[in-house]
């Protein structure tokens, strides 16, 4: 366990290696926050509710979704590069489980992002924007669990896309597709309740809504009570299925490397 | 320590006909071509041996090393390293081995070298005190002092390779595989690296398996060599023996004032062979060192011709190996001719 924590710390150090890059990350996070804030202010200029969602709830949803979206990515990209350039061979010679190692790296990166992007955005949102924070401890707890589940679902999914590098020549194309699918179907752009019915039905059968939409809906009060626990159940389902899939695909990939030489 | 029995590795490569038509065809009807990278090799390496594993490019060296590290699964045959089958116990095997691949880095690109070592300490679970001792010793032998605080990306190739080497030996592995550790380095760094490898071998009894194209590496580090070509082992034995076995041939190059008139002195007839030499003023004589003395050949030549300069080629391991490769190729061609007739 300790070695994985050290690996995470190593990644944190790497991320601070370029200080200009680091602060640019903070600046761009804050900028994006301001842009969507003023955009939704403008949308609500002539109406008080959209589909029964008022401005405050909407802003809360959008801002929290944005904060959470920063975490649903993963290290799939790095894994794909490792596989492509053969560095994965070195990794296979180390006394650690490569999946756990990649997750450790991912956690390191996310801790840095939390400090560099999320906390500044959260502070600005808290002090300068009209966002309603949940009052009951139960909601906060539910949101915490749900957010963690959502983050891991996103991480597993990203890992899966990364492993696809074995079988596809153009990893970049697959990644762009993945990014746009996630942004749209996870509900990071707009709440899924605003989708037309047929699209919403499709979305409910996809894993993406479990990444952002479900936890953020719990936070902003769009989902509460029994529905919230149902949402957690759905997340649990995706969490377990995706992890099993990750393990399976990875073992196939390892076979591919060790038998065909990559 | 390391045993390899009838080890084979085959790759399946997709064979394509040229052009668009070929590409379309391959979509429906894939033809595979089997490439035999390693064709059934055997060897045993004892604890503490330093073995040079040499062969031309594509001979199967790296494939063998990859099977020993557990990165590749053999098609058939047996491998054990320290009692473990590497590809079945990859993580357990990893603790016992260290490796340097001259073309790849295992240090972290963006953080100082010292931090990379610290991370390796945790990954290999090296006890703190042992780690401190090791680092101190490596710093001294490899002159790492000034490099420890610098990120890897800012190091020169020679500096980087010294750091890589230290990383490979850091957890005091029982076996170290070095795949071209001196590639692209200057003489001074090469000397330092060879000295380090030898010292580690003596101090900890580390088994070293080294591949290289620089025969000087072999002569200075290894006491045994295995020569592989076309996936089969051509030679396996001591370094001195190979010199005795194949190295009796001497070659002397003479510079003559007038090459046109040259004829082999009659006293040397039948014992000395005239090798083709493209230079206008030089001729080369080859002979068996045991049968004829160099001094005799030289004195005979001096008595008959005006010699401007002469040069006795050493029985270098390099020429021996080159000879072996060439013989192998000729043998193969010969076989083909026989097969066709």
From TrEMBL, chain A:
InterPro entries: ABC-2_transporter-like. The chain crosses the membrane at residues 20-40, 52-72, 111-129, 141-169, 181-199, 229-250. The keyword S-adenosyl-L-methionine does not apply. It comes from the Bacteria. Coiled coil: none annotated. Pfam families: ABC2_membrane_6. Keywords: Membrane, Transmembrane, Transmembrane helix. This is ABC transporter permease.
Automatic annotation (TrEMBL), chain B:
Residues 22-255 form the ABC transporter domain. GO terms for molecular function: ATP binding; ATP hydrolysis activity. Pfam families: ABC_tran. Transmembrane segments: none annotated. Keywords: ATP-binding, Nucleotide-binding, Transport. PANTHER family: ABC TRANSPORTER ATP-BINDING PROTEIN, ABC-TRANSPORT PROTEIN, ATP-BINDING COMPONENT. This is ATP-binding cassette domain-containing protein. It comes from Mesobacillus subterraneus.
């Amino acid at each position: 366990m300790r070695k994985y924590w050290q690996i995470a710390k190593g990644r944190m150090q790497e991320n601070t290696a370029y200080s200009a890059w680091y602060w640019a990350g903070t600046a761009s996070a804050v900028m994006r926050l301001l842009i969507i804030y003023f955009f939704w202010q403008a949308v609500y200029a002539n109406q008080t509710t959209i589909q029964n969602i008022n401005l405050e709830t909407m802003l809360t949803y959008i801002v929290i979704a944005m904060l959470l979206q920063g975490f649903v990515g993963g290290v799939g990209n790095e894994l794909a590069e490792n596989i492509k350039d053969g560095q994965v061979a070195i990794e296979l010679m180390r006394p650690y489980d490569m999946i756990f190692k990649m997750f450790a790296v991912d956690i390191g990166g996310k801790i840095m992002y939390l400090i560099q992007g999320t906390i500044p955005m959260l502070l600005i949102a808290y002090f300068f924007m009209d966002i309603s924070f949940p009052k009951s401890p139960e909601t906060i707890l539910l949101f915490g669990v749900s957010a963690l589940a959502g983050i891991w679902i996103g991480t597993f999914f990203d890992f899966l896309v990364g492993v696809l590098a074995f079988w596809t020549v153009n990893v970049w194309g697959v990644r762009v597709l993945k990014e746009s699918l996630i942004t749209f179907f996870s509900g990071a752009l707009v709440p899924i309740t605003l989708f037309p019915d047929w699209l919403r039905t499709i979305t409910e059968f996809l894993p993406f809504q479990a990444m952002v939409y479900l936890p953020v809906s719990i936070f902003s009060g769009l989902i509460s009570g029994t529905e919230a626990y149902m949402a957690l159940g759905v997340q649990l389902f995706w969490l377990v299925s995706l992890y099993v899939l990750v393990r399976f695909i990875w073992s196939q990939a390892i076979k591919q490397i060790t038998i065909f030489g990559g | 320590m390391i045993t390899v029995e009838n080890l084979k590795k085959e790759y399946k490569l997709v064979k394509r006909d040229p052009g668009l038509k070929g590409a379309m065809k391959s979509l429906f009807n894939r033809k595979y071509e089997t490439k035999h990278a390693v064709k059934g090799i055997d060897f045993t390496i004892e604890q503490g041996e330093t073995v040079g594993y040499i062969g031309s490019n594509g001979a199967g060296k790296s494939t063998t090393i990859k099977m020993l590290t557990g990165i590749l699964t053999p098609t058939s045959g047996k491998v054990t390293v320290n009692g473990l089958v590497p590809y079945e116990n990859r993580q357990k095997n990893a603790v016992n081995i260290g490796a340097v691949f001259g073309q790849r880095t295992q240090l972290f690109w963006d953080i100082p070298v010292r931090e990379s070592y610290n991370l390796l300490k945790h990954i290999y679970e090296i006890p703190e005190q042992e780690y401190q001792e090791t680092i101190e010793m490596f710093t001294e032998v490899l002159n790492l002092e000034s490099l420890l605080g610098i990120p890897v990306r800012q190091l020169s190739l020679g500096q980087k390779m010294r750091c890589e080497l230290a990383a490979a030996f850091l957890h005091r592995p029982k076996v170290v595989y070095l795949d071209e550790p001196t590639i692209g380095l200057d003489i001074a760094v090469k000397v330092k690296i060879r000295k380090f490898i030898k010292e580690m071998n003596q101090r900890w009894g580390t088994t070293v398996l080294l591949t290289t194209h620089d025969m000087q590496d072999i002569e200075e580090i290894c006491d045994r060599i295995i020569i592989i070509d076309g996936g089969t082992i051509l030679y396996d034995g001591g370094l001195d023996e190979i010199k005795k076995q194949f190295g009796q041939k001497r070659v002397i190059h003479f510079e003559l004032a007038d090459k046109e008139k040259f004829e082999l002195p009659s006293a040397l007839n039948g014992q000395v062979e005239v090798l083709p030499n493209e230079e206008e003023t030089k001729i080369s004589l080859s002979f068996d060192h045991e049968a004829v003395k160099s001094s005799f050949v030289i004195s005979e030549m001096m008595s008959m011709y005006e010699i401007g300069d002469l040069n006795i080629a050493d029985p270098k391991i390099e020429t021996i190996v080159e000879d072996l490769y060439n013989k192998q190729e000729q043998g193969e061609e010969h076989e083909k001719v026989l097969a066709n007739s």
